[in-house]
Amino acid sequence: MAKSSPQTSGTGVWAQLSGLLGRGPGGYAFLSIYALVTSLLLLFNPRTNLFTDIVFILFLLMILAIYRTKVHIGFKIALGVITLGLVLPAFGTLNPYYIDVATQAGIFATLALGLNVVVGFAGLLDLGYVAFYAVGAYLWSIFSTPQVGLMIAGATPIPSGWFYGFILVGLTVGGVFGVLLGLPVLRLRGDYLAIVTLGFGEVIRVLAVNLDKPVNITNGAQGIKDIERPPLFFGDAFRAIAGAFGMQLDDNQLYQLFFYFMVLVVVLITILIVSRLKNSRIGRAWTAIREDETAAIAQGIPLVRMKLMAFAVGASFAGAMGVIFASKQLFINPPTFDLLRSIGILTMVILGGLGNIPGVILGAVLVTLLDLQILPRIAEILRSAQKAGWPIPAAFDPTQYQRLLFGLLMILMMIFRPEGILPEDRRRQELHEDDE
Amino acid sequence: MAAEAKAPTRRVSSQRTPAELLRVIFLPLGQLLAFILGSAVVLGLIVVVLAFLLSRSDPKILQTALAILPQVIIDGIVRGFLFATIALGYTMVYGVLEFINFAHGEIFMVGGFVGAGVSYLLNQWGILANLPAILFVIIVVLIGMTVSGLLAMGTERIAYRPLRNAPRLVPLISAIGMSLVLQDTVRLVATNTPLGFNARFETPNFGKPFQLATIPLGERGIPVLIGPKAVVFIVAAMLMLLALNYLVNATRLGKAIRAVAQDRTTASLMGVNVNQIISLTFLIGGALGGAAGVLFGMNIGTVNPYMGFIPGLKAFTAAVLGGIGNITGAMVGGIVLGFLEAFVASYLSLFTGGAFSGASYADIAAFSILILILIFRPEGLLGESTTQKV
Predict the structure, then answer these.
(1) What does the DSSP assignment read for A113-150?
(2) pLDDT tens digits, B32-76
(3) How much is the mean pLDDT over chain A?
(4) Residues of chain B with pLDDT under 50
C-alpha cells in the first residue's frame, strides 16, 4: 500500500518501495496485482472469518492506494468501477454480512463528509450532528408507515415510490433544521457552540422519546417499525443479469445490493459537492473563518451567513442520509441517535484528518470497520482465550466498549497527530507553525 | 520562592481587617441566599398566577399547585446545590485556562462510585450499620474528594497540559475523549467487581425524614418533608462553598489562582508557578465535584457510570448562567437552574393535564435556558462583559 505522503516517507526501504510502486509501470503492476489478489481471495473464500476480515479491510484500503498512486486517471476510474461496482457486489451476494458493512461504511462516510464541512472546513465543533440524521430518518419513517395516521387523523402512508423525492425533502428539512439551530448559536465562541449543539442533540433525542403524547408523532421509546423500502423498478432486469451469471437473488439480497449502490452513488455525489465547495469562494471563506475569525471579519466575510451555510450544508447531508438509513434499516428508535453516534462520526473526521476529504472517508471506513468487524473479532478471540483458561473477566465484551475506543482515539490523535492520518496541507501548517 | 517576595504579600493580607475578611467570605453566601429566596418567590408567584388562570376550567389545580409548592421549593434547593457544587469545578478551570473541562461530569461520577465502593467495603467488613451517620458521611466524602481531585489533576497532566498552546478545539476534543474514556473505564471496573453497573450506595440509617409543616388539604394534611440525606447535602454544600470562598479570597494560594486567571503570562513573571496553580485548580475543582458525586449518590441510593453526563451538562449551563469564570456566579447559576428545573418537573404535567411529562422536559428546559442566556446575556447573571481580544 502506498502510504507515502511527502512528509512521512523517510529514507530507506519504505521510500524506495513507495517510489517504485507509487507511479509509472510499477504503480500499474502494483495496483493490478493488489486488486486481483484481494478480489480473488474474497470471491473464492466468502466465509465470515478472521482471514476474510483482513482481506476485506485490505480490499477497502485499496481505494486509498488507487487514490494515492500516480497513474493515469482512466486506469484509476476503471479499477474503481471494477472493484466497487462489480467485485464487491458479487462478493456481497455470496456473503451478505460484508456488503452490509460496506454500506454502513458508505453511510458513515457521507455523514463524516457532512460533519467535516462544519468541523473541518469552518472550524465549528458540532457535537449534536446526529440530530439532523435523526430528523431525516424520522421524516421518512413517519410518512411511510401508518404512524402518520396517528399523527394526523385520517392520513394514510404515502406510496413507497416517493422515497426518492423524500431524499430531497430530507435534504431540505435537514438544512432548515441546521439554520434553525445555527441562527441563535452561531454568534457564540467555539467551545460554547460545542456544548449548545450537544444539548441540541440531547433535546432531539428526548423529544423523540417523549413525543408519543399528547399527539403520537414518534411512537416514543418503542420506535417505528416496518418502514417502507422503495419499489425496485429495475429488480427483474437485475435479476435477469445476475441469473445469466448463474446467481439466484432473493428480495433481501436485491435490496442489499440496491442500498449498497444507492449509498455508493450518494457518497460520490457528496464527494463531488464537498470538494467543489471546498475550492469555491465559500470554502475559502470557511477556511478564513476557521483560522482567524477577527481577521475574516476584517476581510469583509459575512461571518454569521457563512457559518450558517456551513451548518446548513452539513445538516442537509445528514438529513438526506437519514431517509436512506431509515429505509435500509426498516426500524428506528431513539437510542439509534444518541450522543455516541455523534461522537463516533466526529472520531471518524478527526482520525482521518480534519478538512481533508480523502482523509475523512478513510477515517469513516476505518472506524466503521473497527466498530463492526475488528471489535467483534477481538471479542471472539478473548472468549476463546478465556475458555483456554486465561484470566479475562467474564463481563468484558469489547463490542460494548466503543466509548473507550473513541475516547482513546480522540485523546491520542489530539496529542500525537492532531492533523489526522491523511492531513490537509493547510491544517498541518496551522497546527505545527511553532515547530519550525 | 524568594523571601522578599513573601514579605509584602503578608503585609497586604494583614491589612485586611477581620471584618473585611468575614465580609469577603460570607457576602457570596448572602448573595446565594438572596437568590434562593428570589427564585422561590418569583417562580412561586408565576406558578400561583398560572394556576389561578387555569383554575377557571379546573378548580382543583390551584389547590394542588399550592399544596406541592413547599416540597417543590425544597427539591429545587437540593438540585440547586448539586449543580452549584459541580459548576464550581467548571468555572474555576474556565477561569484559569479558558477551557471547558468536558470530563468534569465524569469526575463527579467517579466521586459517586468511590463513595459506593467505600460503603460497599464498610458493609462487607460489617461496620457500616454501627457507624454514626455523620462519621460515615465525613469518611466517604473525604475519600471521594481525594480520589476525584487527584483524578482531575491526572487528567490535566495527561490530556490537557500537552495541548495547552494548541488551537482551542484541540484540548476540547481531547477533553471529550477523556470523558468517554473515564465513563467506560469505570464501567469496566464496576461490571467486573461486585458493585455492578447500577451500584447500590449502602448507608447507615439516617433516621426518618424531618416533617417541616403540614398543609391542610382535605381530611388529612399533606406533610412537607425533607430527608436527612438532603439536609446533609445542603449543609455540606454550604460548608464547601464557604471553604472555597475562604481559599480563593483570603489565602496566598487563592491570590495566585486569581492572578493566573487574570493573566497567565504576567502571573508567571511575578513568580507564580503557573503549572502548579493550574494543577491545584483542577485538584480543588475535582475535589468539589467528587464530594458532590458522593453526596448525590448517597441521596439517590444508586450510582452508574453514565450518571455524570447530564448533571455535568446542566452544571455547565449553571456556570454559564451565573457568568463563567465567576465563582459566586456558578453557585447562583446552580441555584437558579435547580429551581427552574424543579418547577418545570413538578408543574408541567399538572398544568398541561398530563400531556407532557415534566421530568423529561426538565432537561429541555435546562438547555433552552442555556441557549437563551448565551444569546441574550452571554456574560451571565453576575459576570462582567468582556470584549474579544485580537
Answers:
(1) HHHHIIIIIS----S-THHHHHHHHHHHHHHHSTHHHH
(2) 888 888 888 888 888 888 888 887 777 777 877 888 888 888 889
(3) 84
(4) 1-14, 387-390
d(CA A215, CA B167): 46
Cross-strand partners of B213: B224
ipTM of the predicted assembly exceeds 0.85: no
Question: What are the respective helix, strand and coil percentages of chain B, to the nearest 5?
Answer: 75, 5, 20
Residues of A with CB below 8 A from B317's CB?
199
Is B192–A209 a contact, with Cβ atoms under 8 angstroms apart? no
Continuous segment of H or E residues that includes residue B63: helix B60-97
- The whole-angstrom separation of Cα B237 and Cα B234 is 5
The CATH fold of domain B18-206+229-240+282-376:
ABC transporter involved in vitamin B12 uptake, BtuC (1.10.3470)
List chain B residues with CB under 8 Å of A396. Answer: 188, 191-192
Give the Cα separation of B73 and B15 in Å (integer).
42
Rounded CA-CA distance A144/A161 in Å is 10
**CA separation (Å) from B96 to B256, B263, B334?**
10, 9, 20
A105 and A361 in contact (C-beta within 8 Å)?
no
pLDDT digits (tens, 9 = 90+) for A20-57: 777 777 778 888 888 888 888 888 877 777 788 888 88
Cα gap A300→A284, rounded to integer Å? 13
| Alpha-carbon span B236 to B327, nearest angstrom | 17
What CA–CA distance (Å, rounded) separates B257 from B274? Answer: 9
Residue of chain B whose alpha carbon sits nearest to that of A420:
B170
Rounded mean pLDDT, A246-261: 82
Quote the CA–CA distance of B211 and B62 in Å, as a whole number.
23
Cβ-based contacts under 8 A for chains A and B: 138
Contacts made by residues B15-23, CB under 8 angstroms, sequence distance 24+ = B16/B250, B21/B250
Q: Which residues make beta-bridge pairs with B38?
A: none
Residue B218: per-residue pLDDT: 62
Compute, in degrees rounded to 10, the torsion defined by CA atoms A116, A119, A120, A123. 160
b/e per residue B91-120 (b: at least 16 CB within 10 A): bbbbbbbebbbbbbbbbbbbbbbbbbbbbb
CB atoms within 10 A of CB B87: 36
What pLDDT, on the 0 to 100 scale, is given for residue B153?
A: 94
Residue B236 near residue B137, CB atoms below 8 Å = yes
Where are the domains positioned within chain B?
18-206+229-240+282-376
Each residue's pLDDT tens digit, B62-112: 877 888 888 888 889 988 999 999 998 888 888 888 888 889 999 999 999
Q: Which residue of A has its CA nearest to B311?
A: A199
Nearest residue to B170 via CA among A286, A191, A363? A191
Mean pLDDT of A344-349: 92
